[in-house]
Amino acid sequence: MDAVEVEELSMTYRVPVRDGGLVAAARALVRRQYRDVEAVRALSFGIPAGQVVGFLGRNGAGKTTTLKVLAGILHPTSGRVRVLGQVPWRRHNQYLREIALIRGSQPIGDAPELTVLDSFHYQQVLYDISDGDFRRNLAELSELLDLDGILQRQVRAEPRRAHEGGPRARAGLPPEGALPR
Ligand SMILES: Nc1ncnc2c1ncn2[C@@H]1O[C@H](COP(=O)(O)OP(=O)(O)OP(=O)(O)O)[C@@H](O)[C@H]1O
Ligand SMILES: [Mg+2]
Question: What CATH number corresponds to the domain at position 90?
């Protein structure tokens, strides 16, 4: 059994549309018009446990949509998906603790008032990581990613996107590294 199993996955977004102007806005209150956007069509693949893979495609090809389905954020239109034997969109706590999704545009999802270290502690609680594992992972990843200088700074102080300078994007990595494996 593959760690990630995807069979005939399809996802179509239903997007409300209307013409500009007040009349159209009022009409949309009574009768909304929708347009279908086919983001993923009949996608199948499998990834064995322990394999590191890249997922490439042109802009708008459906990569983020697929990852959101695998992470349990989106319920797909059709298809069969199992990750670690679980149906992601059922969002079982145990499943959510086994996975991490780090997005380039939003590497840390926690409150921006927290310091980077506080946000790691928050992740420690969420993922139920023991103090020993947490300390070990933090030491290893801080050195690897050169995080010492930013641990005491507020998350908001770090550049938002990876291409804006890095520290916040680097700081997005440790929670996943802190997963017990
Ligand atoms: N929330 C949404 N509502 C409607 N359409 C969406 C939504 N999210 C994505 N789409 C559309 O679905 C298609 C696939 O988008 P998706 O973001 O999954 O692609 P991507 O491969 O991640 O693209 P990129 O390389 O630009 O990040 C695109 O046509 C996009 O416009
Ligand atoms: Mg994307």
Answer: 3.40.50.300
Q: Is residue 71 part of a domain?
A: yes
The number of the ligand 1 atom at minimal distance from the alpha carbon of 66 is 18
Structure tokens at 92: 């079982």
- The β-bridge partners of 11 are 40
- CB of 39 closer than 6 angstroms to any ligand 1 atom: yes
Return the half-sphere exposure (C-beta side, CA atoms, 13 A cut-off) of residue 123: 31
Q: How far apart are alpha carbons 108 and 119 in whole angstroms?
A: 8
CA 65 to ligand 1 center in whole angstroms: 6
* Number of domains into which the chain is organized: 2
Does the predicted TM-score (pTM) go above 0.85?
no
Distances (CA, A) of 169 to 104, 159, 164, 173: 7, 8, 9, 7
- Tens digits of per-residue pLDDT, 119-161? 888 888 888 889 999 999 999 988 888 888 888 888 776 655 5
